[in-house]
Amino acid sequence: MSFPLSVLDLAPVAPGETVGQSIAHSVALAQAAEQHGYTRVWYAEHHNMESIASSATSVLISHVGAHTSTIRLGSGGVMLPNHSPLVIAEQFGTLDAMYPGRIDLGLGRAPGSDQNTMYAMRTDPRSSDRFPQDVLELQAYLAGETRVPGVDAVPGKGSRVPLYILGSSTFGAQLAAALGLPYGHASHFAPQALQAAVEIYRRDFQPSAQLAAPHVIAGVNVLAADDEDDARAQFAAMRRDRATRLFGRGKQFTEAETDLLMESGAGRQVDSMLTHSAVGTPSQVREQLVEFRRFADADELIVGHASPQVEQRLRSVQLLAEAMETVSA
Fold this sequence. Notes:
This protein is an alpha/beta fold. 45% of the residues lie in helices and 15% in strands. It contains twelve helices and nine strands. Strands 1-2-3-4-5-6-7-9 form an eight-stranded parallel beta barrel, surrounded by nine helices. Strand 1, helix 1 and strand 2 form a beta-alpha-beta unit. Helix 1 packs parallel to helix 12 and helix 11 packs across helix 12. The chain is globular, with a radius of gyration of 19 Å.
């Protein structure tokens, strides 16, 4: 591809589908991404959500790695406040030993869950305040330069698995710039601070051993189909499904109830989350993504293929890759 294009996979569990089926679909998605030239596939850590199967992120990466050959795999991201830096260094050091040169470690400071779930995970509500220090401790373990006397990450020591700072506000951008790390913005669901965060990151970036120049990854939703009407119908179905999952609290909605939900503030909030979405035929999606990349001042786009069914997602992966071959870097 003319500029890096990657995939964000939440391992969605569709109604009536098992987690095992969802994971098999994630394998198929990664294989398709590898076949069509995408740079990486990332999996996001979420907890206590029936519709997402990527909570054990490192385990899912390991499984997908065994069924792919070359594509990079990583977290988009690990929510570091939920874990000790040593444990994450060991997990991703293990992954790097299994799949050398293919593993990324994206880090976020949000808990990825509600307060009850944080309690169940034994997470200190103040742990996010330690995020910068925890990133440095984790980085040191992976570099073989531990900050805790007598403690090394085994596996992990000296692996130098590349780190990425992820965020939806200017905080993550400032931290990534100060540490000289790549920055990924969650603009696929939190678009408000995208331009401000990227501007701060590029302005304040300090070169590091990992990265000599700024590298911005921006998230965007994509739904590419052979027919524009089909693409828009899929997008409408995804929009309704997202609203009921986010605001339904497990309730099963009738079509009429979903209509009312979409006419309420819930519908408007979902539309705000989906601000950066490319929908349509391959040529239409290509034009929208080129414009979004320019708007975001991004070096790389990470795409959530938003189609409701796995066959549609796989087709979207293929159509987008083919369309982007004609785009200049």
